[in-house]
Amino acid sequence: MAEIFQKPVKVKNLIALDVSKARALEDPLRIRILDFLIQKPMSIEDLAKELKERGIEKAPTTIRHHIEILKKAGLIELTRLKEARGGMLKYYASNTKILNYKIPEDFDDRLKTSIEKAREEVKHLLAKLLQEHGEEIKAVAEDLKPCPYCSTQHFIEYVLIQILNRALVEALQEHRYPALEGM
Fold first, then answer.
1. pLDDT tens string for the chain (183 positions)?
2. Is residue 148 a contact partner of residue 19, using CB atoms and an 8 Å limit?
3. Is 81 exposed, middle or buried (0-12, 13-18, 19+ CB in 10 A)?
4. What is the Rg, in whole angstroms, of the alpha carbon atoms belonging to the chain?
5. What is the pTM assigned to this prediction?
6. CB 69 within 8 A of CB 24
7. Are residues 111 and 84 in the same domain?
8. For residues 52 and 54, what is the distance between their CA atoms, to the nearest angstrom?
9. Most buried of 9, 46, 169, 171, CB within 10 angstroms?
10. What is the CATH number of the domain that holds 38?
11. Is residue 162 included in any domain, yes or no?
């Protein structure tokens, strides 16, 4: 049999999610709810109103169901309780920001120099993290449970990705970048 096509595939993306987060993100409505809740804390009623304004009518019980899934996955948190009409009004906020864009096909070519520079700096940072905090990182990695879908485990890689992810989020929140203003 003659080979017609062969192409090596290079890993370009890392998606580091635990199974509960991956399942929580399966539903487009939950992603939309996360997007609302990253902007401001909202109640079930607020979410129902916001969804209705966008042409999506959902009963409060349905929204509550989605909120519970997001909460159990650790993607949102209860942020406020308020007395209202003989009961409690709960407000939720997202601790997770979903960036969902299609990268241009020429992304790697256009940003090759930036990617290479960042890669070298990240390699040095990873080496330094492992040198200075390797025992702590290894201890956390050993506490992780195997993923039911994977045949190999990359626990230390996962812990490093989570460290870098949190550091990147905090850096972006703490520092204002003039190039990002108005975007």
1. 788 888 888 777 777 788 889 999 999 999 999 999 999 999 999 999 999 999 999 999 999 999 999 999 999 999 999 988 888 899 999 999 888 889 999 999 999 999 999 999 999 999 999 999 999 999 898 888 766 666 566 888 889 999 999 999 888 888 777 666 655
2. yes
3. exposed
4. 21
5. 0.76
6. yes
7. no
8. 5
9. 46
10. 1.10.10.10
11. yes
